[in-house]
Design brief:
By secondary structure, the chain is of the alpha/beta class. Helices cover 45% and strands 19% of the residues. Strands 2-1-3-4-5-11 form a six-stranded parallel β-sheet, with helices on both faces. The chain has a six-stranded mixed β-sheet with strand order 7-6-8-9-10-12, sandwiched between helices. Bound molecules: beta-D-fucofuranose.
Length: 318
């Protein structure tokens, strides 16, 4: 064989190989996902972010991740930048429930499917998103109240630390909680204010509650564990015993809540699972494959009273 024939043969082999590689999809285009996260306001949120980022890496999905610092304007800006970049799928956890119509319509016009994770929207046109993957926040509120009614024998002066005003978990947890305590005429919310889901605000607002109502407070219902942990510091500084003089029930079930329960300072936490990465990217891949998805995917969760904290803590992943 001449040198020329060898070179020619080699070229043919190379061309054939590249045709084979693209036919088997080894060169398949990477899926690009834009994700507009609420912020980094709580341990729950950090665990949620970690779950999304690590799952994208695992699946080789290109993730454009934006931390919106609890500002809806930032989140809308991020969504518009995803539309401009023509990502394959948009995911976001809406900071508040209202004000999304316009930007979601822009995504629809650009033919970019949207997945809501964790928090939902209040929007009549449900064709603007494919599915909502997340917890049943109303049920979480009910679970907190049911546990409390039993613990307090249907009698308590309650202060309530709300999450971010206008957000789905705040609206729904309050609704579920109030629905259940309405059955107990001697259970009353005597003060209620937002602590924006953060430890520092939770502490600040609890100080206000104590200043105004002091010893009259029997119970704190906190919309998340971080605010409850901030409030525990305020209660101790005020000279009362959290978990004893003031009974505390909160939501999320982060590790720090279990530690506080083991110390006897928190009485109960209702689970809200932030590890949504797997279900989120399952949905992304289903959309890319043209498979149908249910409009609502609900995450299963439980309730953890203080008595089980020591046994459960080692198994907690967030
Ligand atoms: O409970 C809170 C976080 O949307 C369910 O947001 C989430 C809530 C969670 O800041 O800790």
């Amino acid at each position: 064989m001449s040198k020329r024939t060898v070179v020619l043969l080699l070229l043919v082999v190379l061309v054939l190989a590249s045709v084979f590689v693209s036919a088997t999809g080894a060169e398949k285009k990477k899926i690009v996902v834009g994700f507009a996260q609420v912020g980094a306001e709580s341990a729950w949120r950090m665990a949620n972010t970690e779950s999304i980022i690590s799952e994208a890496k695992k699946r080789g999905v290109e993730l454009i991740f934006v931390d919106c610092q609890q500002l809806q304007t930032n989140q809308i800006k991020a969504l518009r930048s995803f539309i401009e970049r023509k990502v394959d799928v948009i995911g976001f956890s809406p900071i508040v429930t209202t004000g999304w119509e316009e930007v979601l319509r822009e995504a629809k016009q650009a033919n970019i499917p949207v997945i809501l994770t964790d928090r939902g929207v209040d929007c009549a046109d449900d064709s603007l998103w494919v599915t909502l993957i997340g917890s049943d926040f109303v049920e979480e509120g009910r679970r907190a109240a049911r546990w409390l009614a039993e613990k307090m024998n249907g009698k308590a002066n309650i202060v309530e630390l709300q999450g971010t005003i206008g957000s789905a978990p705040t609206i729904d947890r309050k609704k579920g909680f109030e629905e259940v305590i309405a059955n107990y005429p001697e259970m009353k919310i005597i003060m209620s204010k937002t602590g924006d889901f953060t430890r520092s605000k939770g502490k600040e607002v609890m100080e206000e509650f104590l200043k105004a109502e002091g010893d009259r407070i029997d119970v704190l219902f906190s919309h998340n564990d971080d605010m409850a942990i901030g409030a525990i510091q305020a209660i101790e500084a005020y000279g009362l015993r959290p978990g004893v003089d003031i009974i505390i029930v909160s939501v999320d079930a982060i590790r720090a809540a279990f530690e506080a329960m083991i110390e006897g300072k928190l009485n109960c936490t209702v689970e809200c699972n932030p590890l949504l990465g797997r279900q989120f990217f399952d949905a992304v891949e289903a959309i890319m494959a043209g498979e149908p998805l249910p409009k609502r995917i609900i995450v299963e969760e439980g309730v953890f009273p203080q008595e089980v904290a020591r046994d459960v803590l080692p198994t907690r992943r967030y």
